[in-house]
Design brief:
The chain contains 3 helices and 6 strands. By secondary structure, the protein is α+β, with helices and mostly antiparallel strands. It has a single domain, classed as Chemotaxis protein chec (3-Layer(aba) Sandwich), CATH 3.40.1550.10. Strands 1, 2, 3, 4, 5 and 6 form a 6-stranded antiparallel beta sheet that branches. Helix 1 packs across helix 3 and helix 2 crosses helix 3. It starts with a helix and ends with a strand.
Length: 134
């Protein structure tokens, strides 16, 4: 589902080989909650460079011209769409859910002990996702 949303929204595809997290990168974490018959949290950790590339693809801009605020907004929009797609896939169209406004903040690089629900690589950059009950 993550790959589908990235492809349809931002024309991004996942790489075949996983990449190691870049040592000197700045990292962001985006979090969105959904409330309804089930309450849960979806989190994504990515590099600031990935957020700029994502936003540039969403807005048809050059990644270097994207500001930090624009990159954060692009990541929020991605998480909003992804969460909506996942909730519908997992719980059907009949159940009613409320999604929170996604939050984006600086984060530490993922560590070896972290156990993401999903890990993939896009444009040579790893993305980490966690899904947990609230």
């Amino acid at each position: 589902m993550v790959c589908d949303v990235l492809g349809e929204m931002a024309f991004m595809v996942s790489d075949d080989e996983p990449a190691d997290p870049p040592a000197d990168a700045s990292w962001l974490e985006a979090e969105i909650r959904y409330l309804g018959p089930v309450e849960a949290i979806l989190r994504c950790r990515c590099t600031g460079a990935f957020a700029r590339e994502l936003t540039a693809n969403l807005l048809c801009l050059d990644a270097e011209s994207c500001s930090e605020d624009e990159a954060n907004d692009g990541l929020r929009e991605f998480m909003n769409v992804l969460c909506g797609q996942l909730v519908t896939a997992w719980h059907g169209r009949e159940a009613v859910f409320n999604l929170s406004i996604p939050d984006v903040h600086a984060a530490a690089a993922p560590e070896d002990g972290d156990s993401p629900t999903c890990r993939l690589c896009v444009s040579g950059t790893p993305l980490f996702f966690w899904h947990s009950q609230a």
